[in-house]
Amino acid sequence: xxxxxxxxxxxxxWKPLWIVVLLTPIALAVVGFFLLHVPxxxxxxxxxxxxxxxxxxxxxxxxxSRKVNRGLYILLGISPIxxxxxxxxxxxxxxxxxxxxxIWASIIVSFSVGAFIGDWLGKRxxxxxxxxx
Length: 133
Prior knowledge:
Elements (H helix, E strand, L loop, with lengths): L13 H21 L5 H23 L3 H26 L2 H4 L5 H22 L9
Helix pairs in contact: 1-2, 3-5
């Protein structure tokens, strides 16, 4: 019995892409250590952090789940939306309310609002990420 190609089969460039993505941090760490005189712990730490982020991106792309996608929408709501709300608050009414609401409380409130907005946007999209399979 022959196997038919499904619509979700990986393109030809998929395997070389991940090989390059995994070899690049190693090459940059070696170049940084030997040519740029970056301390060994900084070069190794940067490569380890890069591998951790690559692993997360691979997991998100290959094994998407509703819980992980919901968490991503909440984090994406916190970062740009919550930060923008906090900046807008600080520039507009933050100067007048600083006695009542400390800086950390304003950060927590604005990031919480950003998280709720991110969750609401995810709910509207049924927690599907853009360009998801």
